[in-house]
Each structure stands twice: as structure tokens, then as C-alpha cells.
Amino acid sequence: MTRNAEHLKSKTKQILTVDEAIANIKSPVSFWKKKLLQFLLPRARLGVGYREQTKSYAIKGGDFLRKGYNKLADLLVKEGYIPDKELIYFFTHEEIKILFKKRSAKLLNKAVRRRKIMPKMMQLQFPEINFGYPTPIDDNSHDTDLSTTMELKGMPVSHGIVRGRCRVVKSIDDASTIQVGEILVVKYTDIGWSPYFPLVSGLVTELGGLMSHGAVVAREYGLPCIVSVKMATTVFQTGDEVILNGTVGTIAKVEQPRSADSDAGSVVNNTTDGHSSEKTEDETSNG
Predict the structure, then answer these.
(1) Are 204 and 183 in contact (CB under 8 A)?
(2) Could you tell me if 107 and 90 are in contact, meaning their C-beta atoms sit under 8 angstroms apart?
(3) How far apart are CA 188 and CA 236, in angstroms?
(4) Under a CB-based contact definition with an 8 Å cutoff, are residues 175 and 196 in contact?
(5) Could you confirm whether 213 is annotated as catalytic?
(6) Fewer beta carbons within 10 Å, N or C terminal of the chain?
(7) pLDDT tens readout for residues 270-287
(8) CA-CA distance, 102 to 153, in Å (whole number)?
């Protein structure tokens, strides 16, 4: 069953030694692979710490700069250089330098145009790896394939199987629409999505890996989760009945519609042994 927040608070995380961690590997490991792991694991742990430290410095640095630009924007608005403070984020550094020297209607118009097209630009999708100038993915080129796609495969990062309705959310601004028991399908997650994990029964992301935010938090909550599922937010739509298999790494549409009385979370009995069991709301409340 999915663990709740109180269970997570009361549970003390045990840090294994290198030898203990290697001994807990379920797959067979040869002698030389064990030796290699003994060499790499301490360095990998140290690298993870450095990575988190770097992210912390980047966030603090970004916050420092943002506060400075906000203060600068207030002064520019007060002096009549720009109409509103949010517009400062649509200038380049060189343009701000020019704006200091003289008021420029041309630069203002350029910044306003950038802000106007930003929503459209935010909808563009790009390949994970680009060579040369990044070229957006043409959504129309996938229409034929997507209409017949019933199953997608990704990387399994948290075991378990669950069946239910999916909720496709393309922006955290729409996260308030998530209902209890739904299977969440998103492009990626970060710390801003954390409050919604206790609501969902499974997670699917288009981006991510074994140590990405969604994968780590899904394992903490015992949620079936697969990541790196290409086009998941396009193939699936909110309300689709799906089966998420976090053990083999697949999410599939259910061809036969279920009863209208069944709830989004009617089958949230997650297991880690590759099996799943189904219960209706009435059975759950009576049992």
C-alpha cells in the first residue's frame, strides 16, 4: 500500500556502508564487478553530494540576482523607463545598459513583443540532444502514430502496478486539477510538485532518470513510477483509463471502458512483486 506522510516522518533512513550496499544487490554480481563497485560507489556518493551543493549555490545565486533585478525594475518604473517591472526580464543585459543611457521606444517594443510570444514559445518541444541550431519538434508529424498508440515504454524507477484514470498536466499552474487516486502524467517534476504526490496513485514523466526528482519521491511514497516516456503527455489525455506497470516500465491504455461508477482511485493497491489487485470503492470501505 502507499505509505503516508506520517509513516515517512517516523521512519529513520538507514545509510548503508559500501559493503552492505553491494551485499543488498539482488542481481548476481561477479567478483570483479564487486571490486569495481567498491571503487566507484564511494566516489559516486561524493559526486552526488557535490551535485546537490552545486544546485544549492545555483539557486541561491539565482535568487540573489532576481532580487537585484526586481529592485532595478522598481527604479526603472519609478523613473518612467519601463511601464511595468516584469518587462525587465525581456531585455538582454546589453539592452538594459543602453536603456540606462537613454529612453528607447524601439527597445521597449522589442521587449513587449518578446513577452507576447513567450506563451507560444513555451509550448515548443525540442529533442533531448540537438546538433547545431535547436529545431522544435513538429507535432503534426506524430499525428498518425499517436492515434493508434496504445502503449508507451519508459524506464522503470519504482516498482508496482496500478490501474486507473490518468491526469495529464502540462504546467504546474494546472496541478490543482489533480484528483485523488489518479495516475499523474507530466513532462517532469521538481520540488514544486511535491505536495501533490500523496494524492496520486502513480507517476509517469517524459524526462528523468533513476535519480530524478520524480523517481526519488515516488520511491519514498511507494508509488509505481516510470520516467523517460517519450510523448506521454501527447499520447494520453486526462480521463484515459490506463494500466501503469512500474516493474517492466510500461503505461498502456485500457481498450474496454470500465463502469461509469468506478472511481479514479478504485484500483490503487500497488504491489512490488509484479502483480496488482483491484478493488472497488465499496469493497475498500467494507474491507
Answers:
(1) yes
(2) no
(3) 15
(4) yes
(5) yes
(6) C
(7) 444 444 434 334 443 444
(8) 56
From the list 7, 93, 142, 213, the catalytic residue is 213
The tally of CA atoms less than 13 A away on the side-chain side of residue 222 is: 13
pTM: 0.61
Vertex 20: Cα angle to 18 and 26 (nearest 5): 110
Phi-psi group of 201: left, alpha or beta (phi > 0 → left; psi -120 to 50 → alpha; rest → beta) = alpha
Burial of 284 (0-12, 13-18, 19+ CB in 10 A): middle
**Digit-coded pLDDT (tens) for 127-179:** 778 888 888 877 655 544 554 558 999 999 999 999 999 999 998 989 999 99
**CB-based burial label for 197 (10 Å; 0-12, 13-18, 19+):** buried
β partners of residue 241: 165
* Cα–Cα distance for residue pair 48/34, rounded to 1 Å: 20
Mean pLDDT in runs of 10 for the chain (287 residues)? 47 75 82 91 89 89 93 93 93 91 90 94 81 79 54 93 94 92 94 91 92 91 94 91 94 70 46 41 42
Question: Is 3 within 8 Å of 202 (Cβ atoms)?
Answer: no
Longest dimension (CA), the chain: 74
At residue 13, the pLDDT reads 60
Which amino acid is residue 85, in one-letter code?
K
CA dihedral 287→196→163→140, nearest 10 degrees, is 160
Our separate counts of H helices and E strands in the chain read 9, 8
β-bridge pairing 241-245 and 250-253 = antiparallel
Q: What is the DSSP letter of 113?
A: H
